[in-house]
């Protein structure tokens, strides 16, 4: 039961996650219209009810329609914004003339804007002053959500009644949203876990063992918590689905594009080699740079994120970065 009219859901972004969220919203009983950047994705969804480029092997409900016009998708009651993080500003700028006051914009991308160091909600507030912003984040592989496997996520907004309404509007039998008032916390967890998933992949690619993997994930969470709290996140949120939950998922599965980049780096590939073979987005690369720049400016110590950035940018080799991490001075665990 929702308090406001959220029957039509517009999805802005026809990649794997946008398409998977379209299937979720449809199963939740909503009318769904998806905007995609590429005309061929729009044609495939409308004509063959599939998105073979970004979400192969999934049959879409024929009631899910696609459009190339932002003006059309903007007529929906709520909009899920599912672009890559580095394209968010341009897409919102193009969408802005068609949006309405009070229309919820649910940001589903996970990253920090590289050129400004802004979080996704801050980019949205910059482009669309006064917009009604929410964040959907948490452990959720697109292919699993689309196959109707159980998924639980965080839906964060400043207004609890909107969080509750959006959570109900997107609630499908296997898709659960838990609402939260901590927008910054929800987006920081989702953004920075991508950086640590690259590190976890390097551990696998270098065959450093299960003990190293557990140690790395735990120290990564310590960095996530230090960074997040300094940026205004609540620790409770970082311990939840959008923080620890997503860190555990993406540091533990080769399905993660970020972790699989790390595995390839650990086996000797370069970032450019791996990314040149991908159409899909690997958010941790740009976010690593944004994150270390923020951390340096604010005096937040993030040795693992620094190491990931040094490796993906080519400033340091994998072996040298591992040596540097292992030779850091000993310290109290909770410092
Ligand atoms: N795939 C997943 O399992 C999940 C992804 N996300 C997040 O969702 C966001 C989108 O990721 P995916 O849907 O996986 O994307 P994807 O990697 O499947 O596809 C790339 C997307 O980039 C778009 N794109 C490429 N060039 C563009 C341009 N110049 N302007 C605008 N868009 C352009 C494509 O149209 C496509 O939608 C990311 O921030 C990701 O972290 C969040 C949760 C799960
Ligand atoms: O965010 C995700 C799962 O929650 C997807 O992770 P990757 O982008 O690393 O594939």
TrEMBL record:
Principal location listed in the UniProt entry: cytoplasm
Compartments where located: Cytoplasm
Binding site for NAD(+): 13-18, 142, 257
Positions contributing to substrate binding: 110, 257-258
Domain Glycerol-3-phosphate dehydrogenase NAD-dependent N-terminal: from-to ranges: 9-158
Annotated function: Catalyzes the reduction of the glycolytic intermediate dihydroxyacetone phosphate (DHAP) to sn-glycerol 3-phosphate (G3P), the key precursor for phospholipid synthesis.
BP term (GO), one: glycerophospholipid metabolic process
Chain positions recorded as NADPH binding sites: 17, 37, 54, 110, 142, 257, 281, 283
Entry keywords, A to Z: Cytoplasm, Lipid biosynthesis, Lipid metabolism, NAD, NADP, Nucleotide-binding, Oxidoreductase, Phospholipid biosynthesis, Phospholipid metabolism
GO cellular component: cytosol
Matching Pfam families: NAD_Gly3P_dh_C, NAD_Gly3P_dh_N
UniProt record similarity statement: Belongs to the NAD-dependent glycerol-3-phosphate dehydrogenase family.
One example GO MF annotation: glycerol-3-phosphate dehydrogenase (NAD+) activity
Cross-referenced InterPro entries: 6-PGluconate_DH-like_C_sf, 6PGD_dom2, G3P_DH_NAD-dep, G3P_DH_NAD-dep_C, G3P_DH_NAD-dep_N, NAD(P)-bd_dom_sf
Enzyme Commission no: 1.1.1.94
The keyword Oxidoreductase belongs to this UniProt entry's keyword annotation: yes
NCBIfam families attached to this UniProt entry: PRK00094.1-2, PRK00094.1-4
Binding site for sn-glycerol 3-phosphate: 110, 138, 140, 193, 246, 256-258
Protein name from the UniProt record: Glycerol-3-phosphate dehydrogenase [NAD(P)+]
Pathway info: Membrane lipid metabolism; glycerophospholipid metabolism
Glycerol-3-phosphate dehydrogenase NAD-dependent C-terminal domain: residues covered: 182-322
Bilayer-spanning residue ranges: none
Catalytic activity: sn-glycerol 3-phosphate + NAD(+) = dihydroxyacetone phosphate + NADH + H(+); sn-glycerol 3-phosphate + NADP(+) = dihydroxyacetone phosphate + NADPH + H(+)
Active-site residues per Swiss-Prot or TrEMBL entry: 193
Native organism: Methyloceanibacter stevinii
């Amino acid at each position: 039961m929702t308090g406001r009219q959220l029957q039509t859901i517009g999805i802005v972004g026809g990649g794997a996650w946008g398409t998977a969220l379209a299937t979720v919203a449809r199963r939740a009983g909503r009318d769904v219209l998806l905007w995609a950047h590429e005309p061929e994705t729009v044609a495939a969804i409308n004509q063959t009810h599939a998105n073979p480029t970004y979400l192969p092997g999934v049959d879409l409900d024929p009631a899910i329609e696609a459009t190339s016009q932002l003006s059309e998708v903007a007529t929906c009651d709520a909009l899920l914004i599912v672009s890559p993080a580095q394209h968010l500003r341009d897409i919102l700028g193009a969408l802005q003339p068609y949006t309405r006051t009070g229309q919820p914009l649910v940001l589903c991308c996970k990253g920090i804007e590289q050129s400004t160091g802004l979080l996704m909600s801050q980019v949205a507030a910059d482009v669309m002053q006064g917009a009604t912003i929410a964040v959907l984040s948490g452990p959720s592989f697109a292919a699993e959500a689309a196959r109707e496997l159980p998924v639980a996520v965080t839906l964060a907004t400043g207004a609890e009644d909107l969080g509750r309404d959006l959570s109900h509007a997107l609630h499908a039998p296997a898709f659960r949203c838990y609402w939260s008032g901590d927008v910054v916390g929800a987006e920081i967890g989702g953004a920075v876990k991508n950086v640590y998933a690259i590190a976890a992949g390097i551990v696998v690619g270098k065959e450093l063992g299960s003990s190293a993997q557990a140690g790395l994930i735990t120290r990564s969470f310590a960095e996530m918590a230090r960074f997040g709290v300094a940026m205004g996140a609540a620790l409770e949120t970082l311990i939840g689905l959008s923080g620890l939950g997503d860190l555990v998922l993406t540091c533990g599965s080769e399905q993660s594009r970020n972790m699989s980049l790390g595995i390839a780096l650990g086996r000797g590939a370069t970032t450019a080699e791996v990314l040149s073979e991908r159409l899909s987005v690997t958010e941790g690369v740009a976010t690593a740079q944004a994150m270390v720049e923020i951390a340096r400016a604010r005096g937040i110590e993030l040795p693992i994120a620094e190491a990931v950035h040094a490796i993906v940018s080519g400033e340091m080799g994998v072996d040298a970065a591992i040596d540097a991490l292992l030779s850091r001075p000993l310290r109290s665990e909770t410092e």
